[in-house]
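ok so I'm stuck.
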Amino acid sequence: MSLTETKVSAGASSVSGKIIAAGILIAFCYWASSVLVTLLVAVLTAYFLDPVVSWLEIVRVPRAIGALLVVLVTIALLATLGWTLVERFDQFGTDWPKYRAPLKQVFTAVDSRMANLEAHVSELAPSAHGGERVVTLADSHPVRDALVGRLSSLYGFILAASFVPFLVFFMLAAKRQVVHATMQLFPSSERTRVKETLEDVTHVLRTYLMGTALVGLILIVLSWVFFWFIGLEFPFLTGLVSGICNLVPYIGLVVSWVPPLMIGAAQFHTIGPFVGIVAMLTFFHIVAANLLVPALVGWRMRLNAVALTVALLFWGWLWGAMGLVLAIPITAVLKVICDHVEGWQPIGRWLSA
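replied:
not stuck anymore, here's the structure
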């Protein structure tokens, strides 16, 4: 075998090895999704709360005690918000019959139109079965299967959420020990670069979390005030859900329309309010995407639209809704790592091109 053939064979083996390694990594991310999502949520929460713990440490509060106080206060705030939302949802459930009638009319009209369209298409297209009788077997226990699926998902969510406060506390309390142990994993000649990488990751994640939280708060308040101004029922609950959905790139705009349109179906009987809701929420989304996000978040992220779209598609496919939430910070961290690793800089430049 000649030298050229040997190099070609070695290159092919290297490419095959990388493809196999990537496949193994993707499979691991899929099968260990609950563990990885829980860990990533805890890491992002710890980055978000770390400035408060550091400030308490400056005023001579021991870091472990400060971390415990911050975690407990955060849990109390989330519990209060959750209880408020439960009360609003309970009231919404009580008033559901008056929303069900107009929604049923809309769905019936849409179903009738689809049935007519299907009938016209079936008249044009020849029958695929040629006169044979087709028998469809219905699921024997659809309600039971749906309940079992919901309960298993709820159990997994509660189990994962119960670990997050402990992980956040340990990450905040033992921050220096964790950083020191991480540095020891690398040879002394690489520790300076690793330290710079970790500092850049900290800046990127903290900027992303703070900026996203501020943009989300602005969207929630604007939606709340707008829904209250037009007289929509449950303005706070609707504004909260719509504002949070509006944060999601691309599909978030359409999803943010659904709650106010559903509630407005029982109140408004003309097309004007619905057009106003869609137009105003679209305006909020455009302002947030083109002004607020670039000013508060984008200057540190520096990710191009293609990279963001691919990341949202990939992580959304892999982890569902949580993948859409975590796609941007994961991609931003990968870009920082590529910028600091020799040989990976072209990937980092492509992500920011």
